[in-house]
Structures are given as structure tokens and as C-alpha cells.
Amino acid sequence: MLELKHVSFQVEENGKEKKIVDDVSLVLPDDEFIAVTGPNGGGKSTLAKLIAGIERPTAGTILFDGKDITGLSVTERARMGISFAFQQPVRFRGIKVLDLIRIASGNDKLTVAEGCEYLSAVGLCARDYINREVNASLSGGELKRIEIATVLARKTRLTIFDEPEAGIDLWSFKNLIQVFQNLREKIRGTILIISHQERILNIADEIIVLSDGKLKQAGKKEEVLPGLLGTGDAYPTCGRFE
Ligand SMILES: Nc1ncnc2c1ncn2[C@@H]1O[C@H](COP(=O)(O)OP(=O)(O)O)[C@@H](O)[C@H]1O
Ligand SMILES: [Mg+2]
């Protein structure tokens, strides 16, 4: 369980203090699919970075299973099972999809069959991809799915996705929703996903709304989503592509 207690992140801009995240207290229960939404500039990405350890709060504490992790680095948090899903998998010359999955799983002896299971889980025809090089020949949608397959292989306790729908076309997006639905069923662990997309909010257990750095709402999807529909915080699926 991850707990934020009065977490703030403040910067100085032109000699003035600016609160980007302002006194946020939250509990993220284990094994839930949690969506974070709210207007652009509301502090969502910053909150994700604070949780992953990329930024440190200027006030407040972050607890993981009751342990204070506020001062821990990204690497230390990753070791404890908190990980940030980068939007594009790293590309190195010559690195194959199987290599990426092996690195993620921490098992360099992971078999092709085991690797293929992760690819199938994200809807890729495993045989066609397992030995592909991770390079520009893969489409944005394929790269996202490969990234999500590596998340599955990592078996982390808490995975953060920051607007995974960004930068992919509508067709891929529809498939991505399916992938997240599968992910929800297949992985144990918490998924924290920042998104404006109604279809993503719709598969969440809980929705958190951040605006102006402040926690506006947090609760079960059934309670929070109806109030968001029709506002700028929940776009219908095509919103971004019109
Ligand atoms: N390190 C920083 N220094 C100054 N301003 C920042 C910093 N990080 C974020 N911001 C600003 O804080 C606001 C919130 O940013 P962000 O967390 O990216 O919002 P969101 O992801 O909700 O769109 C934005 O106006 C952004 O420009
Ligand atoms: Mg953002």
C-alpha cells in the first residue's frame, strides 16, 4: 500500500513560490487499477514523478507498506517494486524484443516460450515479434505494447503510466484499451495510470482528480466518473483525434 501524507512540491519561479503539488494526501491500495485525471498543468505528471522518486517532495511523506520512502532514489524504489513505465522502450542497436523482456524480468535465461507469453498478453503475435530488433521499423502502437509486455515481465507492485495514449493513432488506441483491460486481469499489483480518456477511466477501480496541484476528488469510479463526464477531464475516445 502506498500512502502520501501532505505531499507538496514547490518551485521558485521569478522569485515567487509556486506549488505544483499542493498538500496531497492519498492512499493507493494494493492490486487496484487507479486512474489520475484532471486539467493539463494540474500536477499529474509531477505527482507521478514524486511517487517514482524522480522528484522529491518539498514537504510531506511517502510511505510504502508503512515504510518511509520519501528520501529513497528511483533505483531503491524500483527495487521495492515501484516502477515508471516509460512511454517508449529504450532502443539500442541490435537489441531484440526478447532481450528487453529478459532485462525487465531480471532473468537472462527466460525462454522464448516464456517471453512469448508476455507478448501474447499484450495482443502481439509473439512469433512475429520475439526476435525483432527494437528499432524504427516498429510502429508507435507496437512499441507501446512491447513496453507494456516488459512491465508484465517486471512483475512490479506498482506501475505508473503517464498518458500512454499519447502519440498513437486511434486504431492502436482502441487496442491499447484492450491491453489495459488484460493487464488488469493478468497482473497482480497496482496500476496508476494518468489519462483523460473516458474509456481508460471507465476500467479503473478508483479515480483521482488533480487540479491546480490540489486533490479535487478521490474515490470509486462509480462515484467520481459521472461528475467528470462532459467536462474537459474525460474525453470520449475520439477526443484527441478529431
Ligand atoms: N520543475 C518544475 N519547475 C517549474 N515548473 C514546473 C516544474 N515541474 C512542473 N512544472 C509546472 O507545473 C505544472 C504542472 O505540471 P505537470 O505535473 O506536468 O501537470 P500535468 O501532468 O497535470 O499536465 C505545469 O504548469 C508545469 O509547467
Ligand atoms: Mg502530464
CATH topology of the largest domain, anyone? Rossmann fold
The helix/strand order is: EEEHEEHEHHHHEHEHEEH
* CATH class identity of the largest domain: Alpha Beta
Instruction: Spell out the CATH superfamily of the largest domain.
Output: P-loop containing nucleotide triphosphate hydrolases
Instruction: Give Rg in angstroms.
Output: 18 Å
Q: Are there runs of 5+ residues with pLDDT below 50, and where?
A: 238-242
Secondary-structure content class = alpha/beta
Number of helices: 9
Shape: globular
What portion of the residues fall into strands of 2 or more residues?
25-35%
- The residue fraction in helices comes out at 25-40%
How many strands, what sense, and barrel or not for the largest sheet? 6 strands, mixed
Mean pLDDT over all positions: 88
Overall strand count: 10
Q: Kindly give the count of domains.
A: 2
Biggest sheet strand line-up: 6-7-8-3-9-10
Structure description:
This protein has 9 helices and 10 strands. Strands 6-7-8-3-9-10 form a 6-stranded mixed beta sheet, sandwiched between helices. It folds into 2 domains: 1-81 and 157-164 and 188-242, 3-Layer(aba) Sandwich (Rossmann fold); 86-155, no CATH class. A hairpin with a 2-residue loop joins strand 1 (2-13) and strand 2. By secondary structure, it is of the alpha/beta class. 39% of the residues are buried. It binds adenosine-5'-diphosphate and magnesium ion.
Short structural summary:
The chain is built from 9 helices and 10 strands. It is α/β, with parallel strands linked by helices and 242 residues long. Strand 7, helix 7 and strand 8 form a beta-alpha-beta unit.
